From TrEMBL, chain A:
Residues 82-284 form the AMP-dependent synthetase/ligase domain. The lineage of its organism: Bacteria, Pseudomonadati, Bacteroidota, Bacteroidia, Marinilabiliales. Residues 334-430 form the AMP-dependent ligase C-terminal domain. This is Phenylacetate-coenzyme A ligase. It comes from Aquipluma nitroreducens. Its EC number is 6.2.1.30.
Length: 432, 142
């Protein structure tokens, strides 16, 4: 079922008109209410009237995560606190948390986005949804909760953790839909097997997973272990929370709620917009948000957009699973290289990704890329021939994926240094 | 007749081979045969140890990539042409040898460790031709 057919199946022209109208209104509102963004516009000589349609979007200055921190906690809110009905915050790895505020209308819009996403995934009002995202400052739990209620499904607000109870209620209540992080769903699958509970004895049929990156291999594993269809949902608290985009049953990219957020793909180095279909950094402009509207917010997530109509009938643009973070990007001989690309090549060769380290050097004027791969048990053969074949296979795969040659070296386990349990992935020895 | 051989992945770094022998020596594990295959980048140490399972877990604990591989050991007269005869028989029966290494304990016989592609067939062929195989327990005891 399509929850809001008029919007979700609108023609490109209709969507453009909606976006242009809402963009103009948002820019005007921010200009008059947020001094720090007004200063950014003035610095490039822009006034709200210069923005006449979505075509003018690229004239506007970007908003960065640091802007939220610099205006901590409520400096970017455009409405008085009397209008704010909820506050969420995400703890950053460094410094102060990122704080967002929602008006009543924001919450209603958010609930509808998640409802649309649930319908895309094939969830309906007869479903029993176990929300195992954390409830609290994190947007996952409450966001999903109100979306499910808005649809009319039965919500089990169990929150995260307590795996035994999760599995018990899943059996006793006949949960049909599971919403949590993909890694937690894998854990639930393992526990299920450990307890000898058969997936056939559960009523689970759909999983809505998000809040962290996951691979296609993980999807296959989750679908097999829980006997469900695993749907990817995307969001970030700065923009709204989960439901900014969501996959439909065709699992062919996540439909972005374009009547609320305008997506752009930019080159993270030149900051210029890229043509449709190219991989770059995802940038969002919120066009209905009242609490904390953001213009051209750089997500740092790398993906590409597909504007073709989907097999499900929806015209909402689709974004691919994120390919990595622009912060991690390396440019080698003019080619953009992401550690995540290397990880996925290695994942294709074994069940678990081995530890690896990418070393970039500059010899003369030429950048060279060396990949050290730890030969753990899953890779080890006692035949030289097979180890050489493995090395060649990794090398060839990387060459075809990245478009540049990589020197692959097999090393012993634990050769690669770990800091606090996490392996360092890249060493750039070029002095650029 | 199947012997558990210990195979260890080694980078070509100084001291690593030493580390392996020391770890096993300290645990009172004896090595009866050993061979090191190497390329310019890495090597594989193959050996027959007195307690293969124990050796495996000791090396694993020390973060080596290690596994047990099934091999057979042929006891052949220490005389010209003996090994060639055995290998001819095997290739004649379609048994392919991935690698082998040999050592001699005295002047009369030599032990030849073989890693065939099909271990069951290899054993059958050798036994059918009355060639002498070293039993696993004898092998670990040496
Ligand atoms: Zn679709």
């Amino acid at each position: 079922m399509i929850w809001n057919e008029k919007i979700e199946c609108a023609s490109r022209d209709e969507m453009r008109d909606i976006q242009s109208e809402r963009l103009k209104e948002t820019v005007t509102r921010i200009y008059h209410n947020v001094p720090s963004y007004r200063q950014k516009m003035q610095a490039v000589g822009l006034v709200p009237d210069d923005i006449k349609s979505v075509d003018d979007l690229s004239k506007l200055p970007f908003t960065l995560k640091t802007d939220l921190r610099d205006n901590y906690p409520f400096g970017l809110f455009t409405v008085p606190m009397s209008e704010i009905v909820r506050i969420h915050a995400s703890s950053g790895t460094t410094g102060k948390p990122t704080v967002v505020g929602y008006t009543r209308k924001d919450l209603n819009n958010w609930a509808e986005m998640i409802t649309r996403g649930l319908c895309m995934a094939g969830v309906h009002r007869d479903d029993i949804v176990q929300v195992a995202y954390g409830y609290g400052l994190f947007t996952g739990g409450l966001g999903m909760h109100y979306g499910c209620e808005n649809l009319g499904a039965s919500v089990i607000p169990i929150s995260g953790g307590n795996t035994d109870k999760q599995l018990q209620l899943m059996q006793d209540f006949g949960t049909t839909v599971l919403a949590c992080t993909p890694s937690y769903s894998l854990h639930l699958g393992e526990e299920l097997a450990a307890k000898g509970i058969k997936k056939e004895d559960l009523k689970l049929r759909i999983g809505i997973f998000g809040a962290e990156p996951w691979t296609e291999n993980m999807r296959k594993e989750i679908e097999a272990s829980l006997g469900i269809k695993a749907i990817d949902i995307y969001g970030l608290s700065e923009i709204m929370g989960p439901g900014v985009s969501c996959e439909c049953e065709h699992q062919a990219g996540m439909h972005i709620m374009e009547d609320h957020f305008i997506p752009e793909i930019i080159d993270p180095i030149t900051l210029q917009p890229l043509p449709a279909g190219e991989v770059g950094e995802l940038v969002f402009t919120t066009i209905t948000k009242e609490g904390i509207p953001l213009i051209r917010y750089r997500t740092r997530d790398l993906t590409r957009l597909n504007y073709e109509k989907c097999a499900c009938g929806r015209t909402l643009v689709r974004m691919e699973k994120c390919k990595g973070r622009s912060d991690d990007m390396l440019i080698i001989r003019g080619v953009n290289v992401f550690p995540s690309q290397i990880e996925s090549v290695l994942l294709e060769m074994s069940e678990t990704a081995p530890h690896y380290l990418l070393i970039v050097e500059r010899e003369g004027n030429l950048d060279t890329l060396k990949l050290m791969v730890e030969v753990q048990e899953q890779f080890f053969s006692d035949e030289i021939r097979q180890l050489e074949a493995l090395r060649k296979k990794i090398k060839n795969k990387l060459q075809s994926t990245l478009g540049i040659s990589v020197d692959v070296k097999l090393v012993e386990p634990k050769t690669i240094e770990r800091t606090a349990g996490k392996a360092k992935r890249v060493i750039d020895n070029r002095n650029l | 007749m199947i012997i558990k051989q210990l195979s260890v992945f080694l980078e070509n770094k100084t001291g690593r081979l030493n580390e392996v022998t020391q770890l096993l020596g300290n645990a009172g594990i004896n090595m009866s045969a050993m061979s090191l295959a190497d390329t310019s980048e890495f090597g594989i140490l193959r050996m027959i140890a007195s307690e293969p399972e124990k050796a495996l877990s000791i090396l694993k604990e020390s973060e080596f990539s290690v596994r047990l591989t099934d091999v057979v050991c042929l006891n052949s007269p220490n005389e010209p042409g003996a090994l060639a005869r055995a290998l001819n028989i095997l290739s004649g029966e379609g048994v392919f040898i991935e690698y082998l290494y040999a050592y001699s304990m005295d002047n009369k016989t030599a032990n030849i460790v073989l890693k065939p592609d099909n271990i069951q067939k290899c054993i059958e062929v050798l036994q059918a031709h009355k060639l002498e195989l070293v039993s696993a327990s004898d092998m670990y005891k040496i």
